[in-house]
Amino acid sequence: MPTDTIAINNVVALGRDGEIAIVTIDSPPVNALSADVRDGLAGAFAAIGSNAGVKAVVLVCAGRTFIAGADISEFGKAPRGASLHAVMDNMEGGRVPVVAAIHGTALGGGLEVALTCHYRVSDAKAKFGLPEVKLGLLPGAGGTQRLPRIVGAKKALEMVTSGAQMGAKDALASGLVDAIVDGDLTAGAVAFARQVVAEGRPLKRVRDDNSRLGGDAASLAPVFAAFRAANARAFKGFDAPEANIKCIEAAVALPFEDGMKVERAEFIKLMGGLQSTAQRHVFFAERQAAKIDGLDPKAELLPVKSVGIIGAGTMGGGIAMNFLSVGIPVTIVETKQDALDRGVATIRRNYENSAKKGRFSMEEVEARMARLTPTLALEDLGQADLIIEAVFENMDIKKQIFGRLDTIAKPGAILASNTSYLNVDEIAASTSRPESVVGMHFFSPANVMRLLEVVRGAKTAPNVLATAMATGKAIGKIGVVSGVCHGFIGNRMLGARQEQANKLILEGARPADVDRVLTEFGFPMGPFQMADLAGLDIGWSADTSKGVTVRDRLCEAGLRGQKNSHGFYDYDEARNRTPSPVAEKIILDYAAEKGINRREIDDAEILERCLYPMVNEGAKILAEGMAQRASDIDIVWINGYGWPVYRGGPMFWAEHDAGRARIAASLERMGMAVSPKLVEGW
Ligand code: 3HC
Predict the structure, then answer these.
(1) pTM of this structure
(2) What are the pocket residues of ligand 1 if the criterion is a CB atom closer than 6 Å to any ligand atom?
(3) Which of 65, 216, 253, 291 has its CA 20 to 30 A from that of 658?
(4) Is residue 132 among the annotated active site residues?
(5) One domain for residues 458 and 521
(6) Domain end residue (candidates: 212, 244, 268)
(7) Ligand 1: distance of its center to the CA of 143 in Å?
(8) What is the tens place of the pLDDT at every residue in 614-636?
(9) What is the domain-level CATH number for residue 583?
(10) Where are the alpha helices (DSSP H) in 475-524?
(11) What is the CATH number of the domain that holds 78?
């Protein structure tokens, strides 16, 4: 047991267990390497250096995790406190062995600190990773030079460019940790340190050992080339992955100190760039989105132990999978047996495909399917804690369903609608318990997409709202609260973009130009590719079609999008697309009929007309209080609509890149009403 523990400062303590010194960091929530932590470590190791009685050191963290990295909130601010590099040099170059004792997650700077320790032990659940790339950065404290010296250049490449974590078992196998401790971690680490001392084991410095890099610059050149080629698509648009790769190359090609210089230079470049600022914004925005203004964070949540889903189509099935996958039983309701069977079969097929890819076992598929109860009787939802309606977008039908649910659902059950546009208050009014009604708008495919818009009705009870958000988190979604307005946050802004895209193709741009400009900006696909993918005939019917829109006419001509290989594009068997001459003629004829003078439209105009009105709509959404904060809008667009994360979301982009004043001036030139919020800022 440690004795004579002294506080070095408010977050670092130094204790002793005989000849072993124990340095404990206790800086909630995640022991990030703030100035205080760095100062504390500097103080602790200075004290250890001058104490001849200390034969080894254990570095351990209190609370839920080992150091989770540098303190991101300090980035971009004036430096203060001890330098992390100096602290690490001091630990690594000291006269006694230092053993890192790791639990929770050793991430980023946390893993880098551990890599400067001479030995590392962990508990069996610990995880290790260098996730800086997700913040548009690279490990800037020697991680790119030390990690490949343990796990090899190839594995290190994968880890630094993906930010993926390694479990304790793999860490042990690869030499990232020297032992896994059962029972009390500190006690186990002290015992390990004592053994190191007793056996006179050397001060292992990762930096000095090149034997595990896996080759030299020449022999590994094809590995780097293949890695770049295989990931070109995934890394497109991002600066950080290539910078990370360069650093691993430097680790292989150069002596340690020279490699460190490359790492430093690349790190500084990334840190000063807009991409990292954007990605750090997204990190905090994601966590901020979970906070509901005016709601007690300790508000008592309702239990969600069973779920009812109405509709076994694409949406209903996808939504069901989220719950089945985390162990929550689902009763799924359809009106016809064949539709029910089809829905259940699709769920099974999706799970089986995942199992075939090795994501989980066939037993797991069966376990998940066993939690699913298909039925044709709405009455079977009487005991469900949460009921999610996922039928097609028709207010009358939704009202009818909610009216019936009112008589079926148990008191206190949450009644949610997956509507993507409709008025949740109107739906709620068809029940006698509007306080239990909330919107839960999932995005397709609902088992994959992370965004969940949680729509707060005028009468939604605070604990119903809080439970909907918490339930989203429990199934791995990022919840964002939206007010009731047509299309909520995401689709309302999408509407503003689509309106311009539709006009642009009549005025002279081609659909493929609009799509190209937006994909070059960083979207995975443009509006017309998206329309083809979704199906041009969504909401269209041959019986009622009046041929008043381009889309009506495309459908009337038999163009339905990817599903029949003809839409704005023609698709071959491998889904390669070429612009459709039929669609082009329909667009030209339509423009002529409307008397529109077609002209050359350049890329800059396309971009401005698609994105600026969206930002303007975002500003209106904020002004109306439909979104709690601008960063919530960014989270919606990044997670639901493929806005490139390195551009931080539309509101961040407007503020830091395009410029609000420029957007406002351009909108005025377009003759659009500028939201005062866009001018005054958020
Ligand atoms: N710096 C500052 N704050 C951090 C932080 C960090 N590195 N990591 C987490 N936090 C904050 C969060 O913002 C959140 O604050 P809030 O409660 O006020 O919203 C709080 O800690 C808890 O975080 P989570 O909600 O994310 O908690 P979880 O338990 O879900 O996850 C975690 C914990 C896995 C550690 C996760 O927070 C995480 O992934 N953190 C980031 C890790 C990371 O990116 N590290 C690298 C940093 S860059 C770096 O190290 C550079 C170096 O190479 C020089």
Answers:
(1) 0.94
(2) 29-30, 32, 65, 68-73, 105, 107-109, 112, 131-132, 135, 137, 139-141, 143, 284, 287
(3) 291
(4) yes
(5) no
(6) 268
(7) 18
(8) 999 999 999 999 999 999 999 99
(9) 1.10.1040.10
(10) 490-507, 511-521
(11) 3.90.226.10
